[in-house]
Amino acid sequence: MSAYDALMAHARETEALKQVLGRLGWDQETVMPSGAAPQRAEEMAALETVLHARKVDPRVSDWLAAAEPADAVAEAQLREIRREHLRATRVPADLAAAIARTTSLAQGIWAEARASDNFTAFAPTLSEVLSLRRREAEALADRGDLYDALLDDYEAGETAASLTAMFDAMRPRLVALREAVLEQGERVSRLDGHFDEAAQLRLATETARAFGYDFDHERIDKAVHPFSSGQGLDSRITTRTDPADPFNCLYSTIHEVGHGCYEQNVKRDFLLTPLGAGVSMGVHESQSRIYENQLGRSRAFTGWLHGRFREAFDGFGVEDPEHFYAIVNAVRPGYIRTEADEVQYNLHILMRFDLERALIGGDLEVADLEAAWNDRFADDFGLQVDRASNGVLQDVHWAVGLFGYFPTYTLGNVYAGCLFKALKQAVPEWEEALARGDATPATGWLREAVQQHGALMTPRAVIEGATGEPISVAPLLDYLEAKFGGLYGL
């Protein structure tokens, strides 16, 4: 067996074990008994220890030195294995296990604190998670920027400085658009009524199929915070229901379907290899956001969805598809990131980006986080946070240690803007098909242009290869100004 073949055999077993660990996480958030949390934490820590040992195995270094790639795919496999090996060798095994154990326990503690709106009850656990992630960042950064070291886990090649420059370029136009829209007042009525949760889930399943979700290899379950999990032949998503707000379920589902389809549509040849997953969270979010927004909130698709709402919910009172389109895309102040309209969504992310950089950098302590969040939210959105579940406890990310993840949402929106511009030119029938409840011409183009490649290319190379243009914030901002300018008569 050649060095390359031996390395790939080792890598495939490692990737299979990662999927087992991911399945434990999925189970914990969906069907695991609440009392099992301490045991599950030990199980996940034990498996993380096994994975860490495989990543730092001295043979990996020897194989990498001796391997001779035969083509571009092999070169990319070596690139990804080398990157993971180098990062793993810098992190002590006991620290990797401690992070897995603590974040597993933290998830349940966060959920309880969120339900009781008690940040104080969660703060000690968050302090422990933050301390562990800081230690990891110090091990990885080699005296460089700690936040950049963590960001590299989610978006290789990006830095806090590069993202700050991008976000600073976006903020003025986003703020100006929001102010112009909100000056128009409450022009759109809200949905009113009780929407059966079982009917929501049935419609969510139908909508997932409309976007090409393959239920032979995927499933939908409920969770406190919607997420996706798994790869290849077993890629799962979750959603949530609210009897007063069916859009929460529908658009959470479409968002997670974007993630699930990305993992489902990577070339089968890459299955259980380092190339067999989405290349970065920014590119991942580009898929979920374009599914959810440019396609799912389009006038064409909401026209179809309006008809399905009238069939699914007795007494649904919105008679006009155009009015329904306006309701789906209404811009109004709110606390919750996942429920935010397209105009304000990125402002939620920019706030989190600044706060988590301060936490990692030591400029903000956990004891002061809730007050800092509330003050910043009042400055950015003009609202006083009324309870912790509408504020600092609304997202699970920090509880499970995902520092550096939040900015990939906005990066994904930027990528989605670039992709949508290219998609409209490449698939002229996209609107006609969506009006029939068929998103697959659009999602099929995304599968071929982006999803099938997995981690074969770098994140920026994937997007620029699909669009034929350099990445820019302009397509996203142009799209938002055109869409909401039209809706609000600007």
From TrEMBL:
GO BP: proteolysis
CDD domains with a match to the protein in the record: M32_Taq
Reaction equation(s) it catalyzes: Release of a C-terminal amino acid with broad specificity, except for -Pro
Cofactor list: Zn(2+)
Enzyme class at the top of the EC tree: hydrolase
InterPro entries according to UniProt: Peptidase_M32_Taq (IPR001333)
Cofactor binding comment, as recorded: Binds 1 zinc ion per subunit.
Keyword Mitochondrion: no
Annotated EC: 3.4.17.19
Keyword RNA-binding part of the UniProt annotation: no
GO molecular function, one term: metallocarboxypeptidase activity
Keywords: Carboxypeptidase, Hydrolase, Metal-binding, Metalloprotease, Protease, Zinc
Binding residue positions for Zn(2+): 255, 259, 285
Entry-linked Gene3D superfamilies: 1.10.1370.30
Active site: 256 (proton donor/acceptor)
Family under the similarity heading: Belongs to the peptidase M32 family.
Function: Broad specificity carboxypetidase that releases amino acids sequentially from the C-terminus, including neutral, aromatic, polar and basic residues.
Name assigned to this protein: Metal-dependent carboxypeptidase
Lineage: Bacteria, Pseudomonadati, Pseudomonadota, Alphaproteobacteria, Rhodobacterales
